[in-house]
Design goal:
The structure is a single chain. This protein has about 375 residues and is α/β, with parallel strands linked by helices. The chain is built from ten helices and 17 strands. It has helices at about 65, 105-110, 130-140, 160-180, 215-230, 255-265, 280-290, 310-320, 350-355, 365-375; strands spanning about 5-10, 25-30, 35-40, 45-50, 70, 95-100, 115-120, 145, 185-190, 235-240, 245, 270, 275, 280, 300, 310, 330. The strands form five sheets. It has a six-stranded parallel sheet, with helices on both faces. Helix 4 (about 160-180) links the parallel strand 8 (about 145) and strand 9. The longest helix is centred in the middle third of the chain and has 22 residues, at about 160-180. The protein is globular and about 60 Å long. The N and C termini lie far apart (about 45 Å).
């Protein structure tokens, strides 16, 4: 399966969504045999190609079952609340946390208030609607927090049906069942939905700007967002980026731990310098998510540490903070080829979530230092720690 073909048709400039007038953009892409067209994230149509006329691995509710699938996404989900009160909901006390053992899930488990029921892969197969139904019937939650996803970005290029089954159709089933039961759904998204138009950009992306996925993984995650926003009225879709947390330190690792390991093993490490993002400490992201979901300000949000950086800059700072002297050399994406295309700039603007919660996300450098202190990797007395 080749990478998704993505076309963007520009109607006007700048590249910003308009929720109360003619949409500025139409985004059209095809992946896994489906053609997806969205107008300003308010109207989505998914149509099967000839090769997608049959169901995908038993997943129901996709266009291969019924033909064209069309739905609308409320524009309210992208608007900044003008005067959002801090509203505590006493009913939000029983939370099903999907992916509780992951990096973000682990920190959310510590931060969320209420009765937390961890849900792992043995208790839920998200690609099967019956499994979702059984979990909801058994747990009877008032809120579901979904941190799980198929996130093998490169592998998704050769396994698009699997990525779509988990990140799109499975999320659609979860959103439909939560919506029909009046359950609040918190769904974790990704910065990868921004790709097209990122090259040469020096500013962060807001929630109101049109996404443009450039990989199978990104496209599948974007569809998952659309399904949540369409089928579950009480929702929080929260995009984040470059996560690292304590839970992965002694498990499969994360970018920061990988860089420190390589710096200890090699005379030099080379890191991509032309991809700009915002590396984010899961503890900080979990704290602001926990604050957000105690409000009724449902919608689409960005949650990362502040400031933007290249992966090279992050690696260099991590090595410095750890007191290592291994040279860190910048290279281009072309020198480090990968199956899936990465965004040139996926820096997320978090003004909206900070305004709604009244909290400020600290700079990524300070968060990185705090993480390394927690893991025991921070060199005592190192200069420049905020």
């Amino acid at each position: 399966m080749s990478a998704p073909r993505i076309e963007r048709h520009r109607h006007s400039c700048p590249c910003v969504l308009k929720t109360d007038s003619e949409p500025a953009l139409v985004v059209r892409f095809s992946v896994v045999g489906f053609v997806v067209q969205t107008r300003a994230m308010s109207s989505v149509t998914i149509s099967p190609t000839r090769s997608a006329s049959s169901p995908v691995k038993g997943i129901t509710g996709h266009p291969g079952d019924t033909g064209k699938l069309s739905f609308s996404v409320s524009p309210e989900a992208t608007r900044m609340p003008s005067d959002t009160p801090w509203i505590l909901d006493a009913d939000m006390t029983r939370i099903a946390l999907i992916g509780a053992s992951g990096q973000l899930g682990t920190d959310l488990h510590r931060q969320l208030v209420g009765e937390i029921i961890p849900i792992d892969h043995t208790a839920l197969e998200i690609t099967q609607p019956d499994s979702i139904r059984t979990m909801l019937d058994t747990v009877v939650p008032t809120m579901v927090v979904n941190t799980a996803a198929y996130n093998l970005v490169d592998k998704a290029e050769s396994e698009p049906d699997t990525a779509m089954a988990v990140n799109a159709w499975g999320v659609k089933s979860l959103a439909e069942q939560c919506g029909s039961r009046g359950i609040t759904l918190v769904h974790i998204g990704t910065d990868f939905v921004f790709g097209l138009g990122g090259a040469g950009r020096n500013t962060a992306w807001t929630e109101e700007e049109a996404p443009g996925p450039e990989s199978v993984y990104a496209a599948s995650k974007l569809l998952g967002e659309y399904f949540v926003r369409s089928f579950c009225p009480q929702h929080f879709v929260i995009r984040t980026c470059g996560l690292y947390g304590r839970a992965a330190t002694k498990a499969k690792g994360n970018f920061v731990q990988t860089m420190l390991r390589l710096a200890r093993e090699r005379p030099e490490i080379k890191v991509v310098s032309d991809q700009r993002c915002v590396p984010s400490y899961t503890r900080d992201v979990a704290e602001i998510i926990a604050a957000l979901i105690t409000t009724k300000a449902y919608g689409l949000y960005h949650a990362t540490n502040s400031g933007g950086a290249s992966w090279y800059e992050v690696a260099r700072e991590a090595v410095r903070l750890a007191g290592l002297t291994t040279p860190v050399t910048p290279i281009t994406s072309a020198e480090f080829p990968a199956k899936a295309k990465r965004p040139a700039n996926s820096w997320l603007d978090c003004h909206k979530i900070e305004t709604v919660t009244g909290r400020t996300l600290r700079p990524w450098q300070a968060a990185l230092a705090a993480y390394l202190q927690e893991t025991g990797d921070l060199l005592s007395g190192v200069e420049g720690v905020i």
